[in-house]
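Contributing new records

If you add data, match the layout below exactly. Sequence lines come first and carry their own label; structure lines follow with theirs. Keep one chain per record. Anything else will be rejected by the validation script.
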Amino acid sequence: MAPDPLTSALDSQAVMLSGSLAATGHAPDSVALHHEVRVIEDLAAFRALRHEWDNFAAAVRDASFSLAYPYCELAVELALARGAQVAVAMVHERRELRALWPVAIARRGLLRIARPLGCGSDEEYGAPLVHALAGSAVMGAILQAVTGLRADVLEIRFVRTDSALQEALASCRHSWMLPFVPQRLHHLPGYAIRLREFERWDDFAATLSKSLRAELRGHLRRLNAKGQAEFGWCKSADDAEAVLNWLFATKRQWAISRGVTTKYLLNDKVRDFFIALARRIDLATTPLVTYVKLDGKPVAASVNLVSPRVFEGFVLTYDEAFSECSPGTLLQEFCVKWSHENGREFDFRPLFSAYKARWATHQTVHDTHTLFLSARGRFMECALLTAYAAHAVHGVKKVIAKRIKAIWRKKNRSAPGHAR
């Protein structure tokens, strides 16, 4: 049986690639920065990194839970099971770990596509774990390591445009068409609440509009009138599984009814990932799955990525039969309050939504990068161009539909006999 070219390419690296950058000062016995790529052939190889990974993660500021060891271990297990290759790029400075970046390489037709590890939704932040005290040279080194992988394309999602990673990526090979693509097609707004700026919850609540505060009180009153409302998070794996089943079934129904074709909403892979994750972490202290229940049944739920400093709202949905009570908004308030009480910032994540703008105190901009690492990778430019074109057409259709709706409403209001 002929060896798989992807496996052979990685094996030819002798399980570890290493390189070095020019010393930045004094390091008599070694260069200051040293990068390597460890190819993960099985779970045992990945688990050997746990001690160093956990110690290092504690020194990373505002890291996403999607880069915590338990999350990545599960992602590695699933990636290996489906035949993908896994590698971890690392940068050391005088033998101290300064950055790491776990990546999975999978085939898409003839191409080898590298992406940061994830749950399968392709919606986690793509940036690496980088030490809080690391300089720009470390970011350059980790990027050099990961672009040296034997892959054709590297995709990095949701990179903040004001970050050191964005600056380092500026020197990489992007599509020739990128300068001609309007920024609005590949830049996404992100929303956050810097809760640590507010000593008391009331101080933050005062920044919300009077109308939003009044709506929250009204929604809660209407919800309580319908039964026994309960706000909380799943503290057992069985409860988490039940709520996750409800959440993703409800979200799928929502997507189908609106013609949304987001892949992870139409299959069970991401749901199953979080069900498995719930059995690996301490749910008693981590609100992975939060909910609003009415008489014991979910009416809103969310999956959250909660790290020591940041609470990310990852997937949220609610039962549209209770729209008048807006349980999703009430759940949002519960999660933001928990974040404030427990010293976390709150991250609504990229993509515009009116409710995010109403809550947020800060806005960022995020870009998704597609880097071509080989001549063969350039074949993906056609798919990239098609995606941008489809996005533009979708935007035009939305604008046209909005204008038609406005004209129709105006026409109805001006019609004889219209109730005023």
